[in-house]
């Protein structure tokens, strides 16, 4: 058999899956920022549970699970890590300059915040981020386990 034919519906579904994963990654990064700011230190190890949760969500959207789900989950995890790092840099700028967070983000700009975020990264943080992304890719790529006896998968039942 040959390679599957690329259809407009397949491309649109893939783009929607990647867009949804990116939005979920940004949301995860914003939630990740809360304990980071509360404890006032980087919590890079949270990339592992964040990656796992993102993988579960992405695997539920993308049918069948496989390469697209793995790539989307890994990219969402990397985006969440980059976003929390940039938000942390923005919070530091805001605190140092006596500005509100949104005003500091507007005045600093995306480029400066990304540079500050990159400068604040340590090799250990990068390892945690990579571990989270790899776990997300692996969890999203593999097929979900079998359901216990007596349980049914509602996604496989015909709609009425």
Overall average pLDDT: 85
Instruction: Characterize the largest beta sheet: strand count, sense, and whether it forms a barrel.
Output: none
Total beta-strand segments = 0
Helical amount among residues, as a percent range? over 70%
Low-confidence stretches: none
Give the quaternary arrangement of the chains.
single chain
Molecular shape: elongated
What is the number of independent domains?
1
Q: What count of helical segments does DSSP give?
A: 5
**Beta-strand percentage range:** under 5%
How would you characterize the overall build of this protein?
With 160 residues, this protein is mainly α. It has one domain (14-142). 73% of the residues lie in helices and 0% in strands. It contains five helices and no strands. Helix 3 crosses helix 4 (101-120) and helix 3 (67-97) runs antiparallel to helix 5. The two termini are 35 Å apart. The mean pLDDT is 85.
């Amino acid at each position: 058999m040959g390679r599957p034919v690329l259809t407009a519906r397949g491309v649109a579904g893939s783009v929607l899956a990647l867009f949804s994963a990116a939005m979920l990654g940004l949301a995860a990064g914003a939630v990740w920022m809360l304990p980071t700011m509360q404890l006032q230190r980087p919590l890079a190890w949270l990339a592992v549970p964040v990656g796992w949760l993102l993988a579960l969500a992405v695997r539920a959207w993308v049918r069948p699970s496989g390469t697209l789900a793995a790539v989307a989950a890994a990219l969402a995890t990397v985006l969440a890590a980059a976003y929390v790092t940039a938000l942390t840099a923005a919070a530091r700028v805001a605190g140092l300059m006596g500005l509100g967070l949104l005003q500091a983000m507007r005045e600093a700009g995306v480029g400066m915040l990304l540079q500050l975020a990159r400068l604040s990264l340590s090799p250990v943080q990068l390892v945690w981020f990579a571990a989270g992304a790899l776990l997300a890719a692996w969890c999203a790529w593999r097929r979900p386990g079998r359901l216990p006896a007596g349980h049914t998968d509602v996604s496989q039942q015909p709609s009425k």
